[in-house]
Specification:
Layout: E1 5-10, E2 15-24, E3 27-30, H1 45-53, H2 58-94, H3 100-123, H4 127-149, H5 154-171, E4 189-190, E5 195-198, E6 208-212, E7 222-226, E8 233-234, E9 236-240, H6 243-248, E10 253-256, E11 267-275, E12 278-283, E13 288-293, E14 299-303, E15 327-330, E16 335-340, E17 347-354, E18 359-369, E19 375-379, E20 382-390, E21 393-401, E22 406-408, E23 413-416, E24 422-428, E25 433-438, E26 441-448
Antiparallel strand pairs: 1-2, 2-3, 4-26, 5-26, 6-7, 7-9, 8-11, 9-10, 11-12, 12-13, 13-14, 15-16, 16-17, 17-18, 19-20, 20-21, 21-22, 21-23, 24-25, 25-26
Helix pairs in contact: 3-4, 3-5, 4-5
The structure holds 2-acetamido-2-deoxy-beta-D-glucopyranose (5 copies).
Main location: secreted
Domain Olfactomedin-like: 181-449
Signal peptide: 1-16
Length: 449
């Protein structure tokens, strides 16, 4: 006679259960699996009891059911709201934007930065380390909240972490001479080319690098390195002991970095640099940095963790330049490596290397997408990036100061070139010149601060 249908959506398993009440003799009977009432029915407990026993007076029973019905839409709305939130969570979960694992990684990274800043603060307490520590504590609390409340904005958190990390890197204890006075001065002008010459081997070698030893002050040691094999690999570096010899292609020595261009110690890409009689370059087909000492012929290798290689993150402004994933630079005190990682979304990462130990001492992560620049160079701990203006003009448009972790986006220093493509740019702290491998041409410029 009375058939009541209660349709309840149970959130946890999102299953619906239909409950039928039946009149039998003088009582109403129905079966209910009570385990479905675990949520959120504390407000409906009384009703539940009534439904379960089905023995109340009809009026009372109807009244209860009416109440239930009145409350059902409310309950349903709540459930929908929760389901909607879970859906978003699910989406983020399945599309990889969020997972507990990411949170754990975030936490771990935070912990590492914290330890590093703690250490720095212990050795040299100052306002910056103090501020960093309190910001790190805030960030840690936020991550804890993300765990607790499923409140998350992972991307924002990652950005914050990157900035904190850059600041931590910049205030780490570093050699005294690292903060050389020059870092405060930003490049203001680049001259017209003071040297222009075709490389000494062939006009068809459009990729490579050239320059002057970035450390030796007592000697003019010029070098040129052309990539063969599809502008990808190389195994010799041509060395000259004077500018006159270089200009005349005279008295050079071809130093063998590896026995062949397909040897595991061969050079890949045009990021090579010569510093203190040592060639630093990307090792053949791996995310490793090699150093080859031309006096001792010793080769060392070092893993560059997460670096994109094999045209994953080349320099690409205007048109992509193959095999430019890893760019080495040098200044008075250190060798720098410029690359990009997936973790930093393809944006440029700068690491400072100890040239003798060949290990990384500092790493900064910039917001500059590596594919959006033509080439980079370092002056006094400041990274500069250029972009293509036209066939005969290039422009420095960006700088990142590793001593402050700050980016400068307002630069506009143009300079001339003779051909559209740039395979390598490097700055030499000994003579203050900027060296460019411009398709097959070798150019040098004076710089002004
Ligand atoms: C009651 O529901 C739970 C979960 O929905 C289920 O595991 C259990 O087997 C059910 N019990 C009966 C008697 O149907
Ligand atoms: C749904 O949830 C959000 C936040 O969790 C809350 O602000 C909103 O009032 C809820 N809406 C309903 C209908 O409960
Ligand atoms: C930082 O140092 C303080 C005390 O000096 C210590 O309590 C804390 O655990 C340290 N934190 C980390 C992450 O090492
Ligand atoms: C340059 O190389 C020599 C010999 O390998 C080494 O003794 C010296 O310390 C190096 N100088 C610098 C500044 O790295
Ligand atoms: C670099 O290597 C040297 C010697 O192996 C070690 O003493 C030093 O701590 C290392 N530096 C870093 C930053 O790993």
């Amino acid at each position: 006679m009375f058939i009541y249908l209660l349709l309840l959506t149970v959130i946890v398993t999102v299953e619906a259960q239909r409950v039928t009440g039946q009149q039998k003799t003088d009582s109403c009977l129905c079966k209910i699996n009570s385990s479905i009432w675990t949520f959120p029915a504390f407000r409906f407990e009384e009703v539940t009891r009534q439904v379960q026993i089905c023995e109340d007076a009809l009026n009372e029973f109807t009244e209860k059911v009416r109440n239930t019905n009145a409350e059902l839409p409310l309950m349903e709305a709540t459930l929908q709201n929760i389901s909607a939130r879970l859906t978003a969570f699910d989406y983020l979960h399945t599309s990889g934007l969020y997972s507990a694992l990411h949170l754990r990684q975030l936490n771990q990274e935070l912990e590492e930065i914290h330890q590093s800043v703690n250490e720095t603060h212990r050795q040299n307490p100052n306002k910056e380390t103090h501020n960093l520590l309190s910001e790190l504590n805030r960030a840690k609390n936020d991550v804890q909240r993300m765990y607790r409340d499923d409140f998350f904005n992972l991307e924002t958190m990652k950005k914050r972490l990157r900035d904190l990390n850059n600041r931590a890197q910049s205030c780490k204890t570093i050699p005294n001479d690292f903060r050389s006075s020059c870092h405060k001065r930003i490049l203001t002008r680049i001259s017209s080319p003071s040297i222009t010459k075709l490389n000494s081997i062939s006009k068809s070698y459009i990729s490579g690098a050239w320059g002057r030893d970035a450390l030796l002050t007592y000697k003019e040691r010029y070098w040129e390195h052309c990539l063969v094999s599809g502008n990808k690999h190389g195994n010799t570096i041509r060395v000259y002991n004077s500018l006159e010899d270089f200009m005349a292609d005279n008295n050079y020595k071809d130093e063998e970095v590896a026995p062949s261009y397909s040897h595991e110690n061969a050079v890949q890409g045009s990021g090579t640099i010569l510093y203190n009689n040592t060639v630093f370059y990307q090792c053949y087909s791996t995310a490793e940095i090699c150093s080859f000492n031309i006096m001792t012929h010793e080769t060392k290798r070092m893993q560059l963790v997460d670096a994109g290689i094999d045209n994953k993150f080349p320099f690409c402004y205007y048109s992509c330049r193959d095999w430019t994933d890893i760019d080495l630079e040098a200044d008075q005190d250190a060798v720098w490596v410029i690359y990009a990682t997936e973790e930093n979304h393809g944006n440029i990462v700068v690491s400072r290397l100890d040239p003798l130990e060949l290990n990384i001492t500092h790493t900064w992560k910039t917001h500059l997408f590596k594919r959006s620049v033509t080439s980079t160079f370092m002056v006094c701990g400041v990274l500069y990036a250029t972009r293509y203006v036209n066939t005969y003009q290039e422009e420095v448009f960006y700088a990142f100061d590793t001593t402050t972790g700050k980016e400068i986006n307002t630069l506009s220093l143009s300079f001339e070139k003779v051909s559209p493509g740039i395979a390598n740019l490097n700055y030499n702290p000994v003579d203050g010149k900027l060296y460019m491998y411009n398709d097959a041409y070798l150019l040098a410029y004076d710089t002004f601060f």
